[in-house]
Prior knowledge:
Number of domains: 2
Radius of gyration: 40 Å
Order of helices and strands: HHEHEHHH
Oligomer: single chain
Amino acid sequence: MLDRDLAEMYGVETRRLNEQIKRNIKRFPDDFMFQLKKEEFANLMSQFATSSWGGTRKLPYAFTELGVAMLSSVLNSDTAIEINMAIMRAFVAVRRLLTNPPVERIAEFQQEFKEFKMYMDEVLTDQNDINEDTRMQLELINQTLAELQADKRLTDKPYRRIGFHRDENI
């Protein structure tokens, strides 16, 4: 995250945030924070059609996850304290999750997956049976139609009209 975005999040001015960083520079090694180069900053700004940031005299700082956590510990505001506590709670929750994975949930998902797979196998088997039945029925229908056409050809002989016939030549 950029220093201006973090300053906005913590409710302080960017210059005040950067002042705290300079006062505590030992807490921000290169894997916590670094200053963007001109090319990086130009590339970043070209991603936005219009910038709400305006001009700047200094290139902005970019913070990694570790830098954001450290920044929340050096700033002395209620917002920074709340963010710092939330970050620490998140770290504890992740560590707890990694050390004690929810085995029951995994086993439950595995069981549900097995049941779903068995159900799908049954559905596909039933579908194949239906398809075979349908094929047989279509074959019978086609055979019946062929027989009906053959019967019609036999009965298509000209027949003699019954009743009074009028001579059409008169």
